[in-house]
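Work package 3, deliverable 3.1, input record:
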Amino acid sequence: MSLPPMTVDDKAAQAGGGVHVDGASARELTGGAGLGSTPMWRIRLKLFRRSVATMWSLFRENKMGMFGLGLILSFALMAILHPILMATVWEPAIYDPVSGYDAVMTEYTVVEGEPTDPLSEIALERARLRLNPRIDAGEVVTIPTQPAPPTWTGETPHYLGTDAQGRDILSQLLYSTRAAFFLGAVAAITTVFIATTIGAIAAYFGGWIDGGLMRFADLILLMPLLPVLIVLSAVFEMTMVLLGLMIGVLSGFGGVAIVLKSQALAVTVKSYVDAARVAGGGDWHVIFRHIIPNVLPLSFLFMMFGVAEAIAIESTLSLFGLLNVPMTWGIMINSAQTNGYLLSGTSFWWLLFPAGLAISFLCFGFFLVGRGMDEIINPRLRAR
Amino acid sequence: MFKFLASRLVQMGFLFVVFLSLVWLMLQAMPGDISDTLVGNPSIPLSVRLELRDSLGLNEPLFFQYLTYITNFFRGEMGVSFSRYPQEVSTILWTALPRTLVLFLTATLFAFWLGFKTGKLIAWGRGASSEKGLIVTGIFLQTVFYPWFAILMLWTFGFFLGWFPIGRFIDARLWQNSPYDANELFGQMIITALIAFVVYAVGRYLISRYSNNIVTQGRLAQGLGVLTLGGLVLYWWVNPAREYTWDITHHTMLPVFTLSLVLFGATMLLTRSAMLETLGEDYILTARAKGLPDRVIRDRHAARNAMLPVTTSLVLALAFVIGGGIVTETIFSWPGMGLIFLQAINVSDIPLAVGALSITGVLALFGHLLADVLYAVLDPRIRVA
């Protein structure tokens, strides 16, 4: 049997491997054929698939985690649904989330004095001023109204009603889902990428590199995220990408880096890291092949929490009207506020509840998945 | 310990200067200045605006402005606010800071107390049917979109039920002919509340010192709590300023309640996981083997150690008063630091905005220090250098 020339990777993998799966020896993985005849990447892939399968089977036992995953998937479905609906069923002129308009005709009964139900009655004086000066109490008039309550019938049904500008709420809700996912992904990936790299480098090299990076993290931690982003939104034209990157950088260099560094520190002192170095692995090889893969589960955990946090921050900023984006859930609440429906409560529920619940539930979903992953990484939290 | 503190203080000083410079530069980078907010006013011609820029020193070179600001800052002068012109920044912040601190301290302490109690119980009685419900509630409170939640609370309790006033700090009509100053009265309220708190804390300490029975201790502590709270209420009840005190308290209740609900969820979940972690320790097993009563194991052995991460998070949460304050104070129109900061940003009032952020910085720095020291005090295994 001719052995292919060993690379540094292979030596390191034999000396202790980067990915560790309980009770899986190299012989077992290669089907008893030994290491030589199977290419390394295939073993890696197999190991990876096996560890994913183990994690998945553990995760599946966690009901709340699965519920969270279900929530996220249904939101993802919503995000995919919007372009499809726009292309097929929905007329862009009516259903466009930003520029659409539909005059929903509502029947009003003209009454004398103050109307008791503002959704179906109109005061006599107002009707005379607005519509017809010779109108009398008791007559029924049809007026185009915004915001209109949900209509399920007719040519252009609005399943969640329209907002104060006559735009379809459901369309806005679905459209914003995509933006939320996009922002969450950008922010979380940036955070985790920066924090993992910084944490691993600080833990591996120690000394002044560690000191410098950690003091920098302290400095970032001093900056309260929301006020700083409010200032930055005045300096830059805030788009979704830029905001995602900023949230990612600010939390990636700050708190998350400190936590991941302490995790990386625990990995650095493991014997397989020593073994990899003895076998001739360079600094960067050890960092990227051994330390980072073993910190990654925790990084993924922070990714989940990061997505939830980023979405909440973005919604808060757009609620204050500080972002330069066409439509998000925060802007939906913001437009309810600017049109004076903020304290309308349940009588104009479709203006406040869909957007607020969507933000809350998507964050809820990501948080539940994060907790589920936490229980996998941290076995003490598991139910007995 | 002394050496550790000294080196930390030097580091903190250095960090603060860097922080202040960064914040100042960032705010300078905002387009436009205070004179631009007057563009729309026809009675203020261009020449006046230019003069305004000049008189506020905005035409000086940036580096010179920076040096002036920093040197003045460390001489204890935070400058004069641009948008509320004759008022000094320190005066504005000094009236706003107690409001924000009270809002947050009350909410945090309340949420901490309740969250710790509940978290302890649900971790102890693991698997009970109430556990799931409480956990889901806790997670929902932690992840709920806070501004929206606050709006709903305001609508439900302020508008629909009408139990609480809608926003603001005082009712202007009531205070129009009042012989009292709202800020002074508020200060007195804070002082009496602090005295009551200190009495309670000393009493708690004495109880734990002179009684060994955990059941009697609990009862005595409850009695003490009722007594001090009753004393506080009684003092303000017989006070001639009763009506005005009640007005302030009434306005404080809803924001405090809303904030504590959200913080409660987080504290409860954190306590639960910390408690689960300690329950697996060997000393818990030892305590069980010794045959100690469950309650003693839970409250003395497990809960005290579980308190560690919760306390740290509490201290760190207090450091971010302004960040959290912006949302709460905007929704409830509560005239505190967060609202002042937001208003200052909107009109490019740089001295006021930097001043507000510098206070956050100081709070955060000392929060971190306090967290480290508390950690060492609460956990004897951790020794600071």
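Chain B touches chain A through 54 residues (CB under 8 Å).
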